Amino acid sequence: MLKKMNKNTKSNLITYGMVIAAFVIMQVLISTGSVSSLLEGLMVPLCIYVILAVSLNLVVGILGELSLGHAGFMCVGAFSSAFFSKCMRDVITVEPLRFLLALLIGIAVAALFGILIGIPVLRLKGDYLAIVTLAFGEIIKNLVNVLFIGRDSNGFHFSTKDVMGLNMEPDGTVIISGPQGITGTPKDSTFLIGFILVLITLFIVINLVNSRDGRAIMSIRDNRIAAESVGINVTKYKLMAFTISAALAGGAGVLYAHNLSTLTANTNNFGYNQSIMILVFVVLGGIGNIRGSIIAAVVLTLLPELLRGLADYRMLIYAIVLIVMMLFNWAPKAIEWREKHLSFFRKKKEAVK
After folding, report:
1. What's residue 340's pLDDT?
2. β 148-152/173-177 pair status
3. Are 299 and 307 in contact (CB under 8 A)?
4. What's the DSSP call for residue 150?
5. Looking at the domain 42-306, which fold is it?
6. What is the pLDDT of residue 75?
7. Which DSSP letter does residue 340 get?
8. Phi–psi pair at 232, nearest 5 degrees
C-alpha cells in the first residue's frame, strides 16, 4: 500500500498523523491530570498559532510574497465574530450553533478584507508589499481602538469619540468600547474545536498546494514572466492565495476572540509584534514547508512556558533555540549535512526492503 503512494501523499499523511497523535497524547495527559493548568491553557493559543503559521505560509512560501498584515486579518475576524456573539448571546442559546455562525462570519469578513486589500496591494511586490500590508494591519488595529458601538431600543449607535458620544438611552449597552474593546464574549473556544480547525486548515492548504491551482500559484512564485507566457492569470491566482490565507487567519481570530473574556486590540496581539511572530514561525519552520511551520509554532509557543522554572535563563535558552533552528534550516553546511545523512538512511531502508 505504502509503495503505491507517491511522495506527496506519504508526506501529507505523516503531517495529518503527527497532528492527530499530538492531540490524542495531550488529551490523555490532560484527562489524567499530568499537565499543569497553565500548560493546559496554552492548548487553544497553540492551535491559533498553528493555523496562522500554516495560512501565512500559503502567501510567503507557496505564493512567494512577503506579507506582514496577517495580524490585521486575524483582528478583523476576531472583532466581527465577537461582536456577533455578544449581540446574539441571549438570542441564540445553543453554544455550538452560535460559535459556528460566529466562525463563518469571522472567516467571511476576513476574506472580504483580503479581497479588498489584495486587489490594489498585490500589484506591488517585495519590500513594497510588506510595507503596505504592515500598514494595513496597523490601520485596522487603530480603527478598532477609536470605535465605540452601543445598542438600545432604537438600534445601534456609533461614535469615534467616546461612550458619551453614542447618545444612547439609559437601558442601552456598550458593545465595543474603543481601547477597552469587547467585554463579555462567550468563551466557546476549546482544544477540540481548535484541533478541528487546525485539521480543516491543513486540508484546505495541502489540497490547494497539490491541485492545479496550487501548481499555477507556485509557477508564479518561481517565474512570473514564464507563468504569464503560458496563459496563467497571475492576478487571479495571487488574489486567490491571498484571500484564502486571510480567511484562515480570520478563523484563527475567531478562536482567539472566544478564548478570552475581554478582547482588546493592542500591539502584542494584533499589531506589528504579532505579524512578525507569525512570520518567524514560517521562516524557522522552512518557507513553503507546512509541517515545519506546525513544528516551529508548537515549539516556540510552548518553550517559554516549559522554561519558566529557569527564570533568568529562560529567554537566553529561547534565543539559542531560535538561532539553532535558523542555522539547521538555512545554513548551507547544515542543508548539505541533512541531505547527505537523510539520503543515506533512505537508501538503507530501500536496501532492507
Report:
1. 72
2. antiparallel
3. no
4. E
5. ABC transporter involved in vitamin B12 uptake, BtuC (1.10.3470)
6. 92
7. H
8. -80, 130
φ and ψ at residue 94, rounded to 5 degrees: -80, 105
pLDDT of residue 343: 56
CB environment 178-217: b (16+ within 10 A), e (fewer): beebbbebbebbbbebbbebbeebbebbbebbeeebbebb
CA distance 262 to 183: 4
Query: What pLDDT score was predicted for residue 246?
Result: 94
Distance of alpha carbon 91 from alpha carbon 288, whole angstroms: 43
Long-range contacts of 266-271 (CB under 8 A, 24+ apart): 266/141, 267/141, 269/71, 270/71, 270/72, 270/74, 270/75, 270/78, 270/137, 270/140, 270/141, 270/144, 271/71, 271/137, 271/138, 271/141
DSSP 280-297: HHHHHH-TT-HHHHHHHH
Residue 262 phi, psi (nearest 5): -130, 125
What per-residue confidence (pLDDT) applies to 80? 92
Grid cell at residue 110: 476576513
Residue-level pLDDT at 353:
47
pLDDT at 91: 82
Q: How many Cβ atoms from other residues are within 10 Å of residue 325's Cβ?
A: 20
Contact 151, 172 (CB under 8 A): yes
Cell of 197: 480547525
Rg of the chain in Å (alpha carbons): 22
Q: What is the mean pLDDT of each run of 10 residues along the chain (353 residues)?
A: 63 88 90 83 91 92 87 92 87 86 94 91 80 88 87 80 76 81 86 93 92 89 86 88 94 92 85 86 84 88 75 69 70 72 53 47
Partner residues linked to 173 by β-bridges: 151
**Domain range annotation of the chain:** 42-306
